[in-house]
Amino acid sequence: MMRPIKQFFILFSLVLTPVASAKQSTLNNGNLVLQNMPPIPVEIKAELNRYQNIRSAGFVDWADDDQSIYIRTRFGDVSQLHLVSQAGGTRYQMTFFDEPIGSVSKKPDSTELSFTMDAGGSEFAQIFVLDPNTGDSRMISDGESRNGAVVWNNTGTAMAYQSTRRNGASNDLWIINPDNPETADMILESPDGSWWGVTDFSADDKQVLVANYVSANQSGVHLLNLEDKKLTPLVQTKDRKSTNLPIAFDDLNNGFFFITDQYSEFSQLAWKSLADPTAKPVIISAAIPWDIDDMAISKDGRRAAFSSNENGRSQLYLMDVKNQTHAKVDGMPLGVFGGFEFNDRGDKLAITINTAQTPSDTYVIDLKKNPLKKGDLTRWTYSEVGGLNTNHFVVPEMISYPTFDQVNGQARLIPAFIYKPKTPGPHPVVVSIHGGPEGQARPWFSSTYQMWVDELGVAVVVPNVRGSDGYGKSYLLMDNGFKREDSVKDIGALLNWIEKQDDLDQDRVAVYGGSYGGYMVLASAVHYSDRLKAAVNIVGISNFVTFLENTQDYRRDLRRVEYGDERIPEMRKFLNDISPLNNVDKINVPMFVVQGENDPRVPVTEADQIVAALEEKEQTVWYMNALNEGHGYRKKENRDVYQQAVILFFEKYLIPNGE
Q1: CA dihedral 41, 46, 51, 56 (to 10 degrees)
Q2: Does residue 406 sit in the same domain as residue 316?
Q3: 311 and 447 belong to one structural domain
Q4: Distance CA 377, CA 209 (A)
Q5: Is residue 321 included in any domain, yes or no?
Q6: 97: nearest Cα among 71, 74, 70, 63
């Protein structure tokens, strides 16, 4: 079964002794440890209650009757699997675990489902098979390794998946008969630290399409024969770095579809023959000057759908597979699309749609009327929004601002989205920096941003600094290696732009970000403390060398490609020189650090060490560490406290006296 390709690519603890004067308390049955933080007033909890009771309902898969759908939503503390049998119908909960479920895939011609789930945010996900008729589930992976990227074969007799089972570090490929887990067999041993994953089985289930992901700028396509385990390169990347992500076989034309940026600044949808390996690919989306995100093909192979990322917003296209012609679907909401898939008959397409004023909900397009133009779009889920009128939510404005370097003699422009209060300014500003670093800020629905706009009267600016995805491969490469701090300079240029806006208050600016965005927050505090009032660092990198040495084995080499190899003396010196931990004397802004104890990506030590260093210099620093979370907070009770604490932090340091 084909799944949207970017779902596959999206991914030690030393306890530092806290300063003796640090004040600690706990919440949520001891799972949330608070340090140097005042109690959260009941007034803040009451004010934010509605914003914290907003849900979403993303599409997961079609049910076995071809008319019902599975969605992922939260009625308790974490997201679980639900069944919806008709548009606007009741959501019937199918799983009831303490941990959120991960990826879900339906077994072909069966009611059974596979799903992944980890414990405590560790990301060491296990694979389970669920019988929705009885509610019974069973684990089929080993219970210890990290597993994911599950793809069923066409008969439902086996599934391919990625696992670190061999040595805990390598991303190998395995195949298993779910009815007999002892049959688990490694079909491809990863020769290096790169990522390998199956995206589709051939019609006869004898071969699989394989992706080899080295970095955001380099990936290749391979064909793996399951009988002799022979691996054949289909799209090479050694001589010329490029991204090439396989999607699915096209058995009608004896070829395969993939996404590539070999022939353009942007990622294009392409088709390549398997019969003639020397033939050049056919570029299907050549007329679309934007990245192609995802693609899905109907079970009968006649229809396909794909989406483009146009300045952060999505466009949907339907394609006649045989003729490889496509047309834009008219009448779609202005937002971001994902998770789309045809039903078995191929006459309906389910899709998740997210807009600035509506959380992610599931829609279905009826394709029987006119398959290449406007479909009959029906909303199937209506997620609760805490009683708020989201029609009053601010729709972000797309802006661009000049930065420090030039393109063709003109200042380079950095794209950004800005959410402004409807009241007169000048408004305090929160600069929210995305992670990745190969991520992209898009005009998503954000109850957090709307909460800040409504409750604090702040404007939120969300930039896509150099290194962001969605603006061409050259832009994506601009922050790699020794260019790392050029992206920090883009934040300095944004502060310059804010100074020139009459409705923004240059004297009240905060920075906020998670993961790599957390590093950007810390780096901004190093370089621009005199221009900032507050900083919120969520699971951020404080020292690149300790981060690379301590991140989980299975992802270390992947991160070295992006940040640089700390084992090389020249690079190690550079990474040490720019690391915020080694420049903590320059940080003179109140800091709020948020972390998950079990984070496998950015270990808790990255937070512990920056907090300890700030405390040692008697700099104001709040610290929140969730003992049952990983790379971000997935449990509602923890997320609620964190959001309330951020409001309190901004009220105290960004907007003193509640102004």
Answers
A1: 110
A2: no
A3: no
A4: 32
A5: yes
A6: 74
Average pLDDT over all residues of the chain: 89
86-118 burial code (b ≥16 CB/10 A, e <16):
eeeeebeebbebebbbbbbbbbbeeebbbbbbb
Residues 374 and 405 in one domain: no
337 Cβ neighbours under 8 A, 6+ residues apart: 307, 314, 316, 351, 352, 353, 354
* Domain identity same for 30 and 62: no
Across the beta sheet with 255-260, the strand order is 244-250, 255-260, 268-273, 282-283
Higher pLDDT, 11 or 352: 352
Residue 24, domain extent: 19-51+388-658
Give the CATH number, domain containing residue 61.
2.120.10.30
- 5-19, 29-43, 525-539: which is most confident: 525-539
> What pLDDT does residue 50 have?
84
Specify whether 508 is located in the same domain as 634: yes
Among candidate residues 360, 384, 408, the one where a domain is terminated:
384
pLDDT digits (tens, 9 = 90+) for 594-639: 999 998 889 999 999 999 999 999 999 999 999 998 888 888 899 9
The one-letter amino acid at 381? T
331 vs 11: which has the higher pLDDT: 331
SS3 104: strand
pLDDT interval class at 21 (50, 70, 90)? very low
pLDDT band at 140 (very low <50, low <70, confident <90, very high): very high
Q: Which of 56, 40, 43 is nearest to 641 (CA)?
A: 40
Indicate whether 441 belongs to any domain: yes
345 and 401 co-located in one domain = no
Residue pair 573/629 in contact (Cβ under 8 Å)? The answer is no
- For 555, the enclosing helix (H) or strand (E) is helix 553-563
In this predicted structure, the answer to whether residue 371 has a pLDDT above a threshold of 70 is no
Are 488 and 623 members of one domain? Answer: yes
The reported pLDDT for the residue numbered 375 is 55
**CA distances (Å), origin 531, targets 21, 505, 525, 654:** 29, 11, 9, 12
Evaluate if residue 4 carries a pLDDT over 60. no
Asked if residue 296 is part of any domain, the answer here is yes
Count other C-beta atoms under 10 Å from residue 554's C-beta: 24
Q: Report residue 581 as tokens.
A: 């931990």
Q: Kindly list the distances between the CA atom of residue 639 and the CA atoms of 78, 415, 595, in Å, as whole numbers in the listed order.
A: 11, 29, 11
For 255, phi and psi rounded to 5 degrees? -150, -165
**Number of compact structural domains in the chain:** 2
Task: Tell me the C-alpha distance between 221 and 201, whole Å.
Answer: 14
Which pLDDT band holds residue 370 (cuts at 50, 70, 90)? low
Q: Domain holding 408: CATH number? A: 3.40.50.1820
Q: Is the pLDDT of residue 266 over 60?
A: yes
Q: Give the range among 33-37, 70-74, 535-539 with minimum mean pLDDT.
A: 70-74
Dist. CA 374–CA 330, nearest whole Å: 5
Domain boundary, last residue among 369, 384, 399: 384
Q: Of 611, 482, 490, which Cα lies nearest the Cα of 539?
A: 611
Asked whether residue 8 carries a pLDDT value surpassing 60, the answer given is: no
Based on the fold, state whether residues 652 and 505 are members of the same structural domain: yes
Give the C-alpha separation, 328 to 332, whole Å: 10
* 225 within some domain: no
Query: Could you count the other beta carbons within 10 Å of the beta carbon of residue 276?
Result: 10
